[in-house]
Amino acid sequence: MTWSRPHPGLLVALGISGALSLQAQSVLSPADHALVRGMVADISRTNLQRGLDAFSPLDRISAGPGEATAAKYLTNELTKLGIPHRVHPLRLFLSWPVKATLTVGGTALRAVTPSFSASTPAAGITAVPILFGNSGHPFTGEGRSELAVDARGKVAVIEGLIEPQDAEAAERAGAVAVVHLNTTELLHEMIASAVWGTPGVEDLGRLPKIPIVSVTKTDGLAVRAAIAAGSPVTVYAELSTGWKEAPMVVAEIRGSSDEFVLLSSHLDAWYTGMTDTGGSNIALLEFARLLHQRRGQLKRSVWVVWWVGHSTGRYAGSTWLADTYWHELDTKCVGYVNLDGPGTKGVPLDRASVWAWPELFEWVDALAREVTGTEPIREYLSENPKRIRPPRAGDSSFQGLGIPEYSLGVAELAPNHPDRLPYVGGSQGGWWWHTKDDTVDKLDMNVIVKDIEWRLPSLVGLLNASVLPYRLSNTAAQYRAALDEYATDRFDLATTRALVDQLQQTATETERRLARRSLTPAQSSRANAALLRASHLLNATLYTSAGRYLQDPAFPQPLLPALATLKELAATPAASERSGFLQATALRGQNRVNDTLRQAIEVLRGAVSTAR
What we know:
The chain has about 600 residues and is α/β, with parallel strands linked by helices. The chain is about 40% helix and about 15% strand. It contains 16 helices and 14 strands. The protein has helices at about 10-15, 30-40, 45-55, 65-80, 165-170, 215-230, 275-295, 315-325, 325-330, 360-370, 445-465, 470-485, 495-515, 520-545, 565-570, 575-610; strands at about 85-105, 105-110, 125, 130-135, 145, 155-160, 175-180, 210-215, 235-255, 260-265, 300-305, 335-340, 355, 405-410. Strands 1, 2, 3, 9, 10, 11 and 12 form a 7-stranded mixed beta sheet that branches. Strands 5-4-6-7-8 form a 5-stranded mixed beta sheet, sandwiched between helices. Strands 13-14 form a two-stranded antiparallel sheet. α2 packs antiparallel against α11 and α12 packs antiparallel against α13 (about 495-515).
């Protein structure tokens, strides 16, 4: 196993104890460096440009003709390259916005309605508006506020971008409709359903039951005036919601084993969606070509997938894969790389950006320094790097399976860049996200190529690692961080803390032994199976409430959610009726956490035995 240690200060910042006694060395082997150099030299700008030219005129809404044309282009190219692939004609429950208006004082204002909003009658719904709250930052919920108001029979007016929890909150308060006031003059296409993927029967009650529209900042002034005057407004929303068929393309690059890395991007888009994600779709095809041509030098395989149902089905395509190939993903998938938009013009190219789940973060961070010769930008980790938490967004549909995600590529637009909007959740921060303006001119070929150059080492490194470079001692540190957040004298976490200590010790010992020994292929295989099993178990409990077979809603989720009720318990009077209910929930959650820790410890002890 070859990798270099990160700077000790980073270990401290991440809250990682028991730093490994390993000598700094190259992350990639000389052979892998040579393999990557060959692929980088072979990147074809001609191929990339041809793909961009083919995609740029296509409106790729999922299950629409443009998406079908794009899928056909991909399959034609894959066939020419001799890459095994399959098109899955998925029947998905999708929602297409058709038309929306908001009428205030007799004037019809321009508006958009999100996927899965309820449609109104032809005359719309008329009611008095009331200020309800602030939707907060997309995907994190930061800054969110819900006013303690009675919205029965009213139109709930919410400041900020549409978020899936807004409709649920407004419905609970009795609102008959929701109006979002955007903070700019842009109208972004969004999705309102909190249900992740195609709904099961148990999810149907969570689909929005009231209409939702958004208006611009300027038009929002008229809405505010109506609130002040107590004047009614009329909400009109029309959608096409139902079962539709979409073609999901899946290619397989066969290495020498069935273990694989999942590499993906979503094929569908709002309008032509070239930064979100037409450029990534074409880059994915180039990755497939480069890897397939050198498949004889790869120890593991690669599943390359172009998701469908991303924008109008709340990640329906990736959820379908998680459901349909659950066993293969659980037993063989060693990492997940999802390209949701790299290629935007204006992003910095002097430093790479890294992000990863705890067990892969040190490895990716060290690899970034080796590849670029500079300290990477640690996006999504800068505010609190000790608390690594993947968002509920962007086809992150494998959290229940516990498959670790990682990324080494180009960064987003700098915060002070003129094209950057702070609330944008894609297009690398570009203002044109989810609008008709996301056109091919927003892409930069140099950025696309640089992203491919930087990602290739992280793909080859994981594909060819003799022993998976997981650091589950880091995952144990995340468990400890969560327990510290939930600590209260109202609930005894001593057994859980003791198990976390055992996990930390066992994981650290496993890492030391595996780093010191040269293993036979059979020993490596057993060690990898143990590391993968422990990783998947620990991550599922660390990150999900729904568990390993279902999906959490598209809301920001707490770390170690099985114990999250302890925060409420700490603030609830001990003599209250609710306190007892919270105690019961916390105890059941503790059982889940403790069981996961015991299983992971037992699995890792097997890996330690392998490395003796």
